[in-house]
Amino acid sequence: MGWIWAVIVWTVFGLVCGLLARLLVPGRQAIGLGMTILLGIVGSFVGGFIAYLFTGGEPLQASGFIMSLVGAIVVLVAYLSLGSRGTSRTV
Fold first, then answer.
1. What residues contact residue 14 under an 8 Å CB cut-off, 6+ apart?
2. Any idea what DSSP says for residue 62?
3. pLDDT of 86 above 90
């Protein structure tokens, strides 16, 4: 029963961090609700890795709210830059 709460908490946390990252990064992001949740969760681990680079500890760790938000912004900017690289328009 404890793992169900963990999944619920990670989902809500991922949603909040993902939505805030999408709000703070300018431009249109064509991602849905599931990808927004995943963005926040992956951002938490990216933020944990960034914190590891500066403070040590474990390289694969979740982080607090601020570093999760920073990590989600990093992931979103990387995702958008990789996505725009493959779509070139000719007029």
1. 36, 37, 38, 39, 40, 41, 43, 44
2. -
3. no
Contacts of 46 (CB under 8 A, 6+ apart): 71, 72, 74, 75
Cα–Cα distances (Å) from 66 to 20, 27, 61, in that order, read: 11, 22, 14
Q: Are 65 and 17 in contact (CB under 8 A)?
A: yes
For the chain, the farthest-separated pair of C-alpha atoms sits apart, in whole angstroms, at 57
User: Whole-model pTM?
Assistant: 0.84
- Rounded to whole angstroms, the Cα distance separating 55 from 67 reads 13
Residues 58, 45: Cα–Cα separation, whole Å: 11
- Give the rounded distance of the alpha carbon of 86 from its chain centre: 21
DSSP string covering 73-89, please?
A: HHHHHHHHHHHHHS---
Residue type at 5 in one-letter notation: W
